[in-house]
Amino acid sequence: MFYSTSLLNSRDQPHVTHALCHVYDRSGVSGGAGMTPFSPTVDLEVGTIVECIHEYKAVDDDELSFVAGNLITIVPWDAEDEQDEGWFMGVLQATGTKGAFPINYTKAHQR
Questions:
Q1: What's this model's pTM, rounded to 2 decimal places?
Q2: What are the residues whose beta carbons fall under 8 Å from the beta carbon of 95, sequence distance 6 or more?
Q3: DSSP string covering 16-80, please?
Q4: Closest CA to 34 of 110, 111, 86
Q5: Averaged pLDDT for residues 73-98
Q6: What is the distance between the alpha carbons of residues 78 and 81, in angstroms, rounded to a whole number?
Q7: Is 106 helix (H, G, I), strand (E, B) or coil?
Q8: What is the per-residue pLDDT across 18-56, written as a single tens digit (0 to 9) for each?
Q9: 49-74 pLDDT per residue, tens
């Protein structure tokens, strides 16, 4: 078993960094089969559905709060200059709420 820590800077408070720790088994799978999170530099198309693997509580009004198991559909940013590395705009399917979210709290959704 080995550990990997991802650092995620807050969008509006760059001095605040969140650590996200993953535990991997020898196969490189984090937290069990299919739990490998997206890299903060992943490039996903609009319409892609991702599954939340960690709880996230919104820090700002334009962010989504979600729990593990929620599904989010990637949507375009209202203004491209709003996008920060590691953050995507999406719609939380459970509520229809639109907001920014950290991509490394999600994984590919298996339909």
A1: 0.68
A2: none
A3: -EEEEEEEE-TTS-BSSTT-PPPPTT----TT-EEEE-S-B--SSTTB--B-TT-EEEE---SSG
A4: 110
A5: 93
A6: 9
A7: strand
A8: 444 333 333 343 444 455 787 766 778 999 999 999 999
A9: 999 999 999 999 999 999 999 999 99
